[in-house]
Amino acid sequence: MLLMCLKCFNLIEKSSLKSINCCENKFAEIDNLIAPAIQVLNLKGYKTRGCCSGHLENHLASNHASYINFPKNTNFPYLPIGYIYQQDDEFIKSMLNEVQLKDINNYVLIRHYFIKSNKKICLNNLLENSKNLLNWANSLPIIE
Length: 144
Hints:
The chain is built from four helices and seven strands. By secondary structure, the protein is of the alpha+beta class. It folds into two domains: about 1-30, no CATH class; about 30-140, no CATH class. Helix 1 packs parallel to helix 4 (about 120-140).
């Protein structure tokens, strides 16, 4: 898990946090596999509000997925390979606190579902997804 500064979007190893003084010291936890893509998205003006790369230990779960959450007014010319827009997601709602639940209609979620597989195929899918996300993020235009 990496930390991303919410002001300058620098990525920081969680273990070095005690020795880092970055901006206002407000950070978000980001899964390592998709951290570079999340950083690029934020630097380009696509403000993320939550994300998950998917996890190897969930390779047999039917809801195994990668997702990124954005403010509702975020528009994309196209989505990354394998991603769909998803609203009213019960899995995401189950992870939110009361304040976040009241604000859920102000967000848009994009999600990529993984097919149940063995761990080797799952790892390959997770790595391919992280590469596709970074390529997508790099290809998007900068927004104000």
